[in-house]
Design a protein that fits this description.
By secondary structure, the chain is α/β, with parallel strands linked by helices. The protein has a single domain (about 1-195), classed as Metallo-beta-lactamase, Chain A. Helices cover about 25% and strands about 30% of the residues. The protein is built from seven helices and 14 strands. It has helices at about 35-45, 60, 65-70, 80-85, 90, 160-165, 190-195; strands spanning about 1-10, 15-20, 25, 50, 75, 105, 110-115, 115-125, 130-135, 140-145, 145, 150, 180, 190. A six-stranded mixed β-sheet has the order 1-2-3-4-5-6, with no helix packed on it. The chain has a six-stranded mixed β-sheet with strand order 7-8-9-10-13-14. The longest helix is centred in the first third of the chain and has 11 residues, at about 35-45. It is globular, with a radius of gyration of 16 Å. Bound molecules: zinc ion. Zinc ion binds next to loops.
């Protein structure tokens, strides 16, 4: 499995390109649709199997419609963020916003297969009602639920600090050396966060 990280948009969101056996997934295509299309066409044979969204904030979804128009691929997200995905008034921050007009397949259950890639799903409300984390090939893509030695803010629409605290419990059940790729900033590991993250 190969993971490429692109830092995109006004608030430096991590967008991940995850590929294995000829399948490609994009996690949180934040913005810069044209740049992503160029990259996919150049390095991934012009084929995108699916888009995974960790939550509905504008800085994680800006290029979704551009990619769907180009590749006709499915988009996955959690229904509890439906309002954030679709209502610009709710997900606007500092005058910036974005919405997803393409249909979203709501994730359910604990895992799914997209292309040939198995994706595990963790439901971790707190940063937003429908925040999820995805585990692929032993790597955890945590969105804004957990960062290197920090966690996502809970003062935006539908956020809840007590829910976030509860959601973070899942880390206790994951391997210590599991790599975490967050929605912003540098990557980390489960063990490092259990030891140094002041919120855990
Ligand atoms: Zn966010």
């Amino acid at each position: 499995m190969k993971v490429e990280t692109l830092v995109l948009g006004m608030v430096e969101t991590n967008c991940y390109l995850v590929s294995e056996n000829g399948s490609l997934l994009i996690i949180d295509p934040a913005s810069s649709g044209r740049r992503l299309v160029d990259r996919i066409n150049r390095d991934y044979e012009g084929k995108l199997d699916g888009i995974l969204l960790t939550h509905g904030h504008f800085d994680h979804i800006g290029a979704v419609d551009h990619l769907v128009k180009e590749y006709g691929c499915p988009v996955y997200g959690c229904r509890d963020d439906e309002k954030l995905f679709t209502d610009a008034a709710v997900n606007s921050l500092m005058g910036m916003n974005a919405t997803v007009k393409s249909p979203i397949t709501w994730v359910k259950g604990n895992s799914m297969k997209v292309g040939s890639i198995i994706v595990k799903i963790y439901y971790t409300p707190g940063h937003s009602p429908g925040s999820v984390m995805y585990e692929i090939g032993g790597i955890l893509f945590s969105g804004d639920t957990i960062f290197h030695e920090s966690v996502g803010r809970t003062d935006l629409y539908g956020g809840s600090f007590s829910q976030l605290k509860q959601s973070l419990d899942v880390l206790n059940s994951l391997p210590y050396d599991m790599v975490i790729c967050p929605g912003h900033g540098e990557s980390t590991t489960v063990g490092h966060e259990l030891r140094y993250n002041p919120f855990l």
